[in-house]
Amino acid sequence: MPPETRTPAAPGRPQPAQDVIHNIGYRTYDGPRLGRAYARRSLYSQSLRGAYGLGRSAKSKVLPMILFGVMCLPAAIVVAVAVSTKLNKLPVDYTRYALWLQLVIGLYVAAQAPQSVSRDLRFKTVPLYFSRPIERVDYVVAKFAAMASALFVLTATPLLILYVGALLAKMDFSEQTEGFAQGLVSVTLLSLLFAGIGLVVAALTPRRGFGVAAVIAVLTIPYGAVSTIQNIALHSDNTTAIEWLGLFSPITLIDGVQTAFLSATTSFPGGHGPGAATGAVYLLVALALIAGSYGLLMRRYRKAGL
Amino acid sequence: MAHATTVDYVTVIATESLSKRFPRVTALDRLSVDITPGVTGLVGANGAGKSTLIKILLGLSPATEGRAEVLGLDVATRGAEIRERVGYMPEHDCLPPDVSATEFVVHMARMSGLPPTAARERTADTLRHVGLYEERYRPMGGYSTGMKQRVKLAQALVHDPQLVLLDEPTNGLDPVGRDEMLGLIRRVHTDFGISVLVTSHLLGELERTCDHVVVIDGGKLLRSSSTDEFTQVTGSLAVEVTDSDSHPDGTAALLAALTGAGLVSRPAGRAADGSPASGHVLLVDLVDEGTYDVVRDAVADLGLGLVRMEQRRHRIAEVFRDDDGRGDGHDADGRGGEPAPQTAWGAGWSKTPGPRHEQQNGGTSDAA
Q1: What is the pTM of this model?
Q2: Is A243 helix (H, G, I), strand (E, B) or coil?
Q3: Chain B interface disruption, residue of A43, A48, A306, most B CBs within 10 A
C-alpha cells in the first residue's frame, strides 16, 4: 500500500523530505565511448539545432523562425507570381536574392551568433566542454561549422524554393540549374563569412546584448559607409574607386566575388562591379577574412579553459 | 618507492615534483603526491594551487616541470583519454538557466562520448542518484543552490568515470545541504565505486568524508596522510573536573598530577572544542586501557569532582596546526605512516593566527 494512503498527513507535522536519496543501485556503464570526433559532432548538431531554437525554450524559437519565414516568404511569392503568370524567367536572380534580403541575414547573425558563443562564456559552460575529450580546435570548428550551416539553411532554402518553382513553371532547366548552382556557391561563401565575423564579434563579450549590438554594427556600418562613398565616387565619375571600395564591407565583398565569377549583376552604384582581376582580390580578401575569424576564435578560446 | 605494503595498492593520481610557474606566481612548487582509490580531500586556502593542480590533472594546462599521471595515463600526452575517464565538477556556476537539467546532462554525456540512447538512460539514472526527481524537467534557472550543485555533480558522473574531481562542491550550501552533499560524495565511492578527489578549504568537513587528506599551501605539499592516522592513532581523552577548596584550579592540579604519572596531557584550547567550558578541559593522550584508571585515580586522589571523561578523536585541524612551522618536513615521503609527533603538540598551540585557522576552526566546531 502506498504510504500516503496509510498515513494521512497529520496537520502540523512536516512531510518527509522529497529529496531523500534512495539507493536503488548504481549501474556502471560498459558500453562504447565514442570519443572526440563523436563529441565534436554532438556539439555541432546541438549548436545547429540551437541556432533555430530547437531543443530550447519556446521563446528562443520565435525570432529565428520568424526570420526564417521572412527569408522564405518573398521567394514563395515570386514563385507564385511566376507560376500563375507563366513567366519564362524568374524576376529575381538566384545570386541577387541574399543581397536583397541582407538585412534579415544580418539580424539572424546578430541574434544567433551571441546565442551560440556568448551563452557558453557567460554561464561558464566552456570549462565543462574542455573537461571532456574535445580540444579547443574541436569546439571552435563545431561552433563555426554550426553557425555557417545555420546561415546556409537560412539562405539556401529560399533559393531552393525559387528553383523548384522555376522548374514547376517549366522554365529552361539548364539555365535554372546553372543559376541555382551559382547562387548556392555564393550563399556558401556568404554563410562562412558572416558566421566567422558574427562569432568573432560575439565571442568578445559574454554579454548577449552587447554581442547583438556589436554584430549589427559590424555588419551594417561598413555597408552604409561603403555605399555612401561609392555614391560620392559615382558622382565624381571615379569608377575604379567604386570597384575597390566594395572590399570594405562584408556584403559588398560577396557582391564583388559573385559579380566577377558567378555571372551576377552587381548592385554597386552605376553597375560598376569588379572585373576578374579585381574580383580575385575580392575572393582572396573574403577567404582571408574567413581564415582570420577562425584564427581569432582559436586565440579567443586559448585562455577560456577552466 | 616502498609502497608494496598493501596488496591492492594502485595509484589513481601520481605527481612527481610537479611545478607550475606563471610569470609572477608559483602556483605549484615541486609537488609529489600519490593518491590511492577512495575519497581523497585536497585542502588548501584559496590560491593554494588546488585549481591549478586540477587543470594539470585534466591535461588542460602543461606543467612547467615534473610529471603527473592520472589512472596511469600521462597528463602531458594523453589528456583526451584521461578526460574520457574522469569527471570534473567546477567550483563556479556552469549551468545555462534556460535548459532543463535533463537536456543539459544528456548533452554533457554525449560530449563525453556516450551514444544518444545510453546518454539518456544514464542521465535519468544519474539525476535520480544525486536526488533530482520531477524538477529535472524544469529550466535550471529556477533551481536552488543545492539543486544546482547536484546537477553539477550529475554531469561529472554521467559517463561513469573512474575518478571524479570535485572542486569545492559544498560552496554556498547551508549546513544541511552541506551534509547531504558530503554524504553523496561518500556514496560516490562506496556505492558507485568511483574514486573521488574533493577540494575544500574546510578541513572539518573532509575528515568525515575522506579516507585520505592532502594539504597543500602555496603550491607546496604540507601533508598527505590517511584520515585514520590523524583521528584514530592519536586518540585522546577529554577530562573536565571541578575546582575544590584545596585545589582552586582543579584543572591545573590534575594536569600536574597526570604529568607526574607519565601521561601526556594539555589543556584544550577554547578553539579545539568550541564549548564555553573548554578552558577547563584537559586532553589526555590515550596510551592504553590503563589510561582511564590512571585518570580516575588521579582525580580521586586530588579530591576533585569529575564532570566528564570522554573519548575523543583528534580532529585533522589540530594535527595540522603544528605543521605550519615545519611545513616541508614531510615533502619527501608524504604518505609516511608515523603519527603526528606528540612532542609538537604544545608548540603551535597558542600561536594560531591567520585566516586559515579561523576557517579550520569554523569547520570543525560543528563536528563535535
Answers
A1: 0.77
A2: helix
A3: A306
